[in-house]
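Input/output pair, single chain:
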Amino acid sequence: MFINTIWSLLPPVVAIVLALITKEVYSSLFIGIVCGGLLYSGFSFTGTIEHVLTDGIIGSISDPYNVGILVFLVVLGAMVMLMNRAGGSAAFGRWSQEHIKTKIGAQLSTIVLGCLIFIDDYFNCLTVGSVMRPLTDKHGISRAKLAYLIDATAAPICIIAPVSSWAAAVSGFVEDANGLELFIRAIPYNFYALLTVAMMVILTLTDFDYGPMKSAERTNNLNYSAPDPEPSPNITGADDQPEPPVSAKGRVIHLVLPICVLIVCCVTGLIYSGGFFDGTPFVEAFSGADASVGLSIGSVAALIITVVFFIASGVLDFKECMNALPEGFKSMVPAILILTFAWSLKTMTDSLGAKEYVAGLVAVVAENEAIMSFLPSMVFLIGCFLAFATGTSWGTFGVLIPIVVNVFGGDLSNELMIIAISACMAGAVCGDHCSPISDTTIMASAGAQCDHLLHVSTQLPYALTVAIVTFICYIITGFVRSAVICLPIGIVMMFAVLMMIKKRVKA
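Output:
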């Protein structure tokens, strides 16, 4: 009765609406999960309990891919705690205070670092957060603004980076064409990702905020006093935990070296999982990499190297390193809980056939020859809606990309197909960017140690602004079909819209 119908979208809608109304994410996600269980079981009590617990929560936690991501989170939390206790973060805070003297410089540094760490969005969120938090705190930048900068340089950067786990995922969803070639050719048309980067730079250079973000920045500045070097690790915004002891021997190298080791080890782990050391070419190994396995292997190796380095350099002894590990785990518990519920909610929507329902809508639209030039803009909107409702951009890729490829018969010479694929990717990232149940959004909150719903509410107006300009760009591109013409038009439109908003806010 409820399978493969519009009712399949009810659970995520319930969770999202409740989260925005109550400002409480755990109960909202759980109610959405229960709602999905009720619909799937036909309102059977025992059927609902079994589906929610066995198929949903337990199934999500026991899924090998999800377990790998949880291992990566726990290890990364432990590494962040080790770097804090070794004094590396505090030393970087002192160094940055001497060399980066302005708020604009701190934000630009965060953007640049986010763009450089393009391997994986989870890795990006937590690494950039741990490195830049001391710097942004020193300059009075709110955690909400930091979370936005992290989130806006995570998925939007990964989706335009040919060497990333996202490129591998997109390539894997393309069966009848060269996936990597298609991904690379779609980059200039990925307006949401490119305009998001442009918007961050414009807002930073003009020192301008609007909407809830302006209020968050103002409140932060009114209450601002130079914080302790190591803020307590939680994503709820509360600073009620005692600060851990920090080594006085820490230097910047005790932050930079572990991060560099983590990057090298994670890249090595990714290509290892893709078979590089068994003779597979690098590009093919990366495109076939298992992000869960690769990041788990890389992070564990980096953790071991970091512990040895800290003990050898004398900043921490073995007991202090071991004591930091469970503290790092505890710092990630809120993110792990939200992720588990978000994965369970995705299981509910999958079991109700949400993907198949949306896929049917796309297929009906694609059959109408009269509106083919509007196809990219419509695919963008559908991608936004599906990713927002399900909280997953990769799941959206899996639904929409094969449909678009089939519509055009996998013909890479058809420029409209390239544009439609880019619109699919842009819509998926946009919806993922806006959704409070998105794992990337959750990771950005964890990386910035910001209240999750505060991050969602402050980021949403910014994401919607870019989405509107992107939608207009895809309408134009459906007829013009040239990135050389349409991308500059989009950037000019983005700048003009922001200046109009700035003028209105000042007035």
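Residues 224-241 have pLDDT under 50 and may be disordered. Residues 452-480 form the longest helix (29 residues).
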